[in-house]
Design brief:
Radius of gyration: 16 Å
Number of helices: 3
Mean pLDDT: 92
Shape: globular
Structural class: alpha/beta
Oligomer: single chain
Strand order of the largest sheet: 4-3-2-5-6-7
Low-confidence stretches: none
Order of helices and strands: EHEHEEEHEEEE
Number of strands: 9
Length: 174
């Protein structure tokens, strides 16, 4: 397997995560409990590093989704793993590795609001603006990136490269 070229270094990632955590700490300073929901599997590395820096009381839960096979109708999302915690009346921070078309995240954000969350905000490490097909408000954004296939720091290609400490681009199509 080829070694990806570095798009965002480990140092740049950690510095930006410090900044995002500072914003979250400011915004949730008075929160009695912030429910942080990671979208599996890609968000895990980012979520762990981020939440180690958050000073507000947090609870952690996870969503795992998949697009329906076959026709691939935009916005049709299957929930593989649902939340274990009740979010009714709570502040919820959805943590995602990358926002591209926006369909899946819009669906998840709508579902969290429908379930009665007091507030719902989105924190995304990467924002692939050129790929966006539906608008998704990103409250805490790490880095805008071009419409390239990225791996590392939780992002994978066929379950490989997740454990790279940086965000990289594969030089050749796999």
């Amino acid at each position: 397997m080829p070694t990806p070229s570095t798009l965002i270094s480990e140092t740049d990632l950690q510095n930006r995560i410090d900044e995002i955590a500072g914003e979250i700490n400011r915004d949730y300073a008075d929160s009695d409990l912030l429910i942080c929901v990671g979208v599996l599997k890609g968000s895990v590395f980012f979520m762990v590093d981020l939440l180690k820096r958050v000073t507000a009381p947090v609870a952690v839960d996870f969503f795992q989704t998949a697009s329906y096979g076959g026709a691939k109708v935009p916005g049709e999302v299957r929930i593989r793993k649902d939340l274990d915690l009740s979010i009714r009346g709570r502040d919820v921070l959805l943590i995602e590795d990358i926002v591209d078309t926006g369909y899946t995240l819009r669906t998840i954000l709508d579902l969290l609001r429908f379930r009665g969350a007091k507030s719902v905000k989105l924190c995304a490490l990467l924002d692939k603006v050129e790929a966006r097909e539906v608008e998704v408000p990103i409250d805490y954004r790490g880095f805008p990136i071009e419409n390239v296939f990225v791996v590392g720091y939780g992002l994978d290609y066929d379950e490989r490269y997740r454990n790279l400490p940086y965000i990289g681009v594969l030089e050749e199509e796999q």
